[in-house]
Every structure is written in structure tokens, then in C-alpha cells.
Amino acid sequence: MLLRYNFRVYPTPGQQVSLARAFGCARTVYNDALAARRAAFEAGQRISDSELSKRMTAAKAAPERAWLSEVSSVVLQQALADLNTAYRNFFTSVTGKRKGAKVASPRFRSRKDTRQSIRFTKNSRFMVTPDGKLRLPKIGDIPVRWSRDLPSESSSVTVIKDASGRYFASFVVNTDNEPLPPVESEVGIDLGLTTFAVMSNGRRIESPRFLRQAERRLKKAQRALSRKEKGSKNRAKARVRVAKAHARVSDTRRDWAHKHSTGIIRDNQAVFVEDLCVKGLARTRLAKSVHDAGWAMFTCMLEEKAARYGRTFAKVNRWFPSTRMCSVCGVSGGKKPLHVREWRCMCGTVHDRDVNAAINILAAGRAESSTPVELVSVSASVEQPAVKQEPAGRVA
Length: 396
What we know:
15 strands; alpha+beta; single chain; disordered C terminus
């Protein structure tokens, strides 16, 4: 399977200038190709990918575009490949062949975009030097902060500059699955806001609320930014401070999700979660808390790690009444408002709202073979199903 490894890189000031030049050249080629495609469409013509590549080669020979030769040609070819991929995704989405949310048509890139990236493939002959530096053509040897060794030779590397001014090298490697020793336990997980996750075995994971904890610092940085004059250097510095504050929150949340998802996959042979409609919930009064929780990122990590380590992962249909159904007798009660945390069934059993829902999710996951309609995706696929209707406030 293909895995991506990200590492922090520290280019020198001269290398940062070279990277900025490469970012600009890739952006120019992308925008020129997009303009050519739009012009051909308006004229009722079609332009092939090979024709765009020929135009880029001819543009490099022109005096007004001679500076395109200052960067690796692979970077420019990959910019064209990105545009071709964007158009393919757009067309498959319009024709209904692509599942999930609709994909818009490609847009022009701006030099003011907070995220810039370029990609090198094997044709560019990039390499990791014996002393651990990343050698890129026409840029040089960039120091890398290695947190682990690459499991195999990388097929490509993407150099990324994020909104806070940090540089990263993202390697794509092809590795074999690493199945873990089998275990007997299986778990159903009910995701929430007050308590991030409640499992069918009774374990609870409290919600860390990283954004809420950092709100005071973020407000202070945002207010300082709003007072700066537009276009000034002080405003640019203030914008970077805001970006760093947000990056600290997102990095902390991602690290927390990685640790907990790894532990859950390691300790359970099968993991089942509810297919919550995050987009629908993000349009309610709970929007900030929903985004802060990061449910989609967490479930995506569970799904990917289950496929990597030989575990079973499935999502239970969001319309499955996990909260209102008794896990003992199977009778479905009425709707339970959010403030109702415990309820008594007609059979006499007193249920904790979240634990009961997790047990029901586990039972629905185990019943996959007998009731496949209740399950919308299983571990091997990471593509989301089409949304039928988005509930307004299901956060049980």
C-alpha cells in the first residue's frame, strides 16, 4: 500500500529563494495551461494533455518565459499533471461517476495562497544523501529533521510551504501491510462532543477541546492582525503569528488523534463507528465544537490503520437508531434529547446513553453479513458514500 511520510525541512535563505522561484514557475505553468483549456472550451475546441506539454516546452524557449528554465522541468510537468487530474476529477464528478461531494472546476492559483507546493518524481533524480539531506535538482541539499527511517525507496517527494512559513518534505513510499497479532476483542465507538468517544467496553476518551483551550491566544493574535495596515510588513508578520497559532492547534489535535487511533486498532480486532454527517452538523449551533472534535480525521485514521494492520473496520449507517434502541431487549424507544444522558427501558434496564449506543453500534457491525444494508463502507475503501440527506443535529 502507498503511505506518505512527512518530515520538517530547514532550507537555507538561498534555498528558500530557489524554492520560491520553483513555486512561482509551477504556478505560472498551471495558470497558463488552465487559461489555454478555458480558451479552447469557449472556442468549442479540445486540447490534449500532450499539446499542453508541447506549449509549455515552447514557452520556455520564448524570451518572455526564459526564466522557466531556471527550475527543474519535472516540477513544471507535475504542475500540468495536477491540472489534468483536477479536470478528470471535475468531469467524473459532473457525470456522477465520482462518489462524495461535488468537485468544482479548477481555479487559478495565486501567489498570495498561504500554501505552496511542488513535486519531484524519480525522473528528477532527487535523492537522500548519505548525511541525511534531501538533494533536489537546482535547489541543493536541504537539511531534514528525520523522525523515522523511510521503509522503502520513495517514488516522489513533495516540498510544501504552509501558511506559517514552515517547510515540509512529503515522501510517497510503497510498503507491504504489517498485520498485527490477532486479538479477540471487538469494539463499537460512539462519538460525541462532551465525551469524544465512548466504547462498548465502557472505556471513555474525554474531549480535549484544543481549539477552545487556545481561543484566548487566537483572539489576541487575530485582534493584533486586524489593527495592522493592509499591505504593510507588520501585517504580514501578524498574519504569520496567527497562522502559527492555528498550526499549533491543528498539529496537537492530529498528534492526539494518531495516538488514540493507533491504540484502538492495536487493542481490537474489529472496530465499528457510526457514519456521522459532519457537514450537516457543522451547519448547526454546535459548529465550532464539531470542527474542534475532528471526527472525520479520527475515523479516517482508524480506517487507514485498520487496512494497514489487518484489522476490520466498518461504518454503521447514520440512520441506525443506536441511541434510542435498548441494547438488552432490542426495543426502540422515543427520541432522546441531548440533555437526557440516562434512560430506562420498558424491560427495566437503565442505560447510559453513550454506552448503550456504542453497544448497539458493535452489534450492528457484527451483523454485517446478515444485514449488509446497515453498513456503508468497510476497511479497504477510503471513499465516502453519497449523502442521501443530512440530519440537522445528530450528535448522540
